[in-house]
Write a structure and sequence with these properties.
This protein has about 160 residues and is an alpha+beta fold. It is about 30% helix and about 35% strand. The protein contains 5 helices and 7 strands. A 5-stranded mixed beta sheet has the order 4-1-7-5-6. Helix 1 packs parallel to helix 3. The structure holds cytidine-5'-diphosphate and zinc ion. The site of zinc ion has 5 residues, from strand 1 and helix 1.
Length: about 160
């Protein structure tokens, strides 16, 4: 039995020194704003696997008004979500993700990010794919006011 899930996330950008994408910190002159570490990619992946398994969503499991989640490492949230998905009898078939960012370029960091996501989920790196897309200079992404990410995940019982 197969299921698919879709995850989407957006964070506002502000002046900063680094940004975390897929659990990897990248030196950058903009930072993402959020209650946790604002890792837009890990949040999209968390929602994709939870959605596939019909187990809720990230804000439901880890409320942003809960002080325990303030500044929290999103790797922990994804790890916890993936453990719930596994406990419900599912395993991940594959993930495919898009990061919508004018900058930084994702490509030079892609392998490190894939490796990190695979490690968090306890799956082979071959099951995790990722790419970046600019906003072509227009809209909140293109104007570097926001960063977004999407993930589609397939799971199998
Ligand atoms: O050429 P096209 O309009 O399809 O895409 P783009 O947004 O201009 O991005 C061109 C290429 O740059 C992408 O296919 C990615 O390989 C890379 N890219 C990236 O690595 N990181 C980003 N944040 C944006 C784009
Ligand atoms: Zn988020």
């Amino acid at each position: 039995m197969y299921r698919i899930g879709l995850g989407h996330d957006t964070h506002r950008l502000t002046v900063g020194t680094a940004i975390v994408i897929g659990g990897i910190w990248i030196e950058h002159n903009r930072s993402a704003v959020g209650h946790s570490d604002a890792d837009v990619l890990l949040h999209a992946i968390t929602d994709a696997i939870l959605g596939a398994a019909a187990l809720g969503d990230i804000g439901e499991l880890f409320p942003d008004n809960d002080l325990a989640n303030k500044g929290r490492d999103s790797s922990e949230l994804l790890r916890e979500a993936s453990e719930q998905v596994k406990r419900a009898g599912w395993h991940i078939v594959n993930l495919d993700c898009v990061v919508f960012a004018e900058r930084p370029k994702i490509l030079p960091h892609r392998e490190k990010i894939r490796e990190k996501i695979a490690e968090i989920l306890g799956v082979n790196i071959e099951l995790v794919w990722l790419k970046g897309k600019t906003g072509e200079g227009v809209g909140p992404v293109g104007q570097e006011q926001a960063i977004s990410a999407e993930c589609i995940a397939m799971i199998e019982r």
